[in-house]
Specification:
single chain; 374 residues; alpha/beta; eight-stranded parallel barrel; two-stranded antiparallel ribbon; 15 helices
């Protein structure tokens, strides 16, 4: 495992962090034995940063992580979770939820505490409106948290306002991969945050799994000397501004592969030709992607039964392989796009700001023409 300094905090973090968002479930319940084994295997392999959040896996993730970090594992890691700013209805909610998180995680102190999924709107209305920065500082003074940060999903301009609006940020968490170089905070945001001394965590390095098994056109651009996953991770590890990247590992093979990749991670590890290759891969990808869904499922559950991430996965697949797309959509029987009633509840929580209700209207005709909507 390789380690890097975490901004101005003085901490050292593994270049690979464990994102506790994508554990497998059965009947809506996390498969605990498997999840604990995966997390502990990663820690045994040198991972020392574990990331979760209040709402992950319908509120189950934090408690699972707390149990997984028993038996001495808590002392081996930096533990991170997030305040669900978008769901707070009062300043008092911040303290209530933080105390609940400490209980769930079975810890006295959360090492890295983030204001979750900030946009300019939530920053101005909730963070500033409820005085949450003062709340964060008070929680640190009380020993409940150690470092103050935020995760982000909005425009680059919004990112700059948040980054420069408070001098106390220790770190931030950004969505970044070789496709999203100009999306949201982008590479400019990465560089600007690092220049201010913040540790920078990268989420969605595989764009919700899309870059793990890319479309044939993208795969053809990537040399076969590395797997598509390793290429995607190396794109980020090449940048010295990246402190660590998060991977939502849900299989032991993913853990072992990612540990091997992390062992080879170095700043400046790519050649000029490699970097040009990523630009070509993005050009190919951008001609295929229809909906920028990462399957985070913040939009779920739909009150009308639409499997929103599943529908978008099938729809995106139409740009690559219509037969596969048809099979995916057929498997969504009872949860397809035609159930959408455009209530827009999902859109309020979508980090990618997808016009879900509008897009849903366009999808049934695509599959109806192909016979998949019968």
């Amino acid at each position: 495992m390789q380690y890097r300094p975490f901004g101005k905090t003085g901490e050292s973090v593994s270049v690979l962090g464990f994102g506790a968002m994508r554990f497998e479930t059965e009947n809506g319940i996390i498969k605990e034995k498997e999840a604990v084994s995966l997390l502990r295997a990663a820690i045994d392999g040198g991972v020392n940063y574990v990331d979760t959040a209040y709402f992950y896996l319908e509120g189950q993730s934090e408690a699972l992580v707390g149990r997984a970090l028993r038996d001495g594992y808590r002392e081996k890691v930096h533990l991170a979770t997030k305040s669900p700013v978008f769901a707070l209805e009062s300043a008092e909610d911040f303290d209530r939820i933080l105390n609940e998180q400490l209980e769930r995680l079975e810890t006295r102190t959360i090492d890295f505490y983030l204001l979750h999924s900030l946009s300019l709107k939530t920053y101005e209305e909730k963070v500033l409106g409820y005085g949450l920065l003062d709340k964060m500082e008070k929680a640190r003074a009380d020993g409940k948290i150690r470092y103050i940060g935020f995760s982000f999903h909005d425009s680059h301009e919004a990112f700059l306002k948040i980054l420069n609006g408070y001098d106390g940020w220790d770190f931030c968490q950004l969505q970044l991969n070789y496709i999203d170089v100009e999306n949201q905070a982008g590479l400019r945001g990465l560089e600007e945050a690092a220049a201010k001394g913040l540790g920078v965590i990268v989420m969605e390095p595989l764009l919700g799994g899309k870059l793990a098994n890319p479309a044939p056109g993208v795969r053809a651009v990537l040399p076969s000397s590395r797997t598509p996953v390793e290429w995607a991770l190396d794109f980020l590890w090449d940048r010295p501004e990246v402190s660590l990247l998060l991977s939502g590992m849900n299989a032991m093979e993913q853990v072992s592969d990612n540990l091997a990749y992390a062992g080879r991670a170095r700043p400046g590890m790519l050649t000029t030709e490699d970097r040009a290759m990523f630009r070509r891969a993005k050009t190919v990808y951008d001609t295929m992607a229809l909906v920028p869904c990462t399957k985070c499922a913040y939009c779920m559950p739909c009150p009308f039964g639409v499997d929103i991430p599943g529908v978008f996965e099938a729809y995106n697949r139409t740009a690559v392989n219509m037969n596969e797309a048809r099979d995916l959509y057929a498997g969504l029987e009872g949860h397809r796009a035609d159930l959408c009633r455009a209530c827009r509840r999902c859109e309020r929580n979508c980090p990618q700001h997808i016009a879900i209700s509008t897009t849903m209207k366009a999808i049934p005709p695509v599959f109806a023409k192909d016979g998949a909507g019968d």
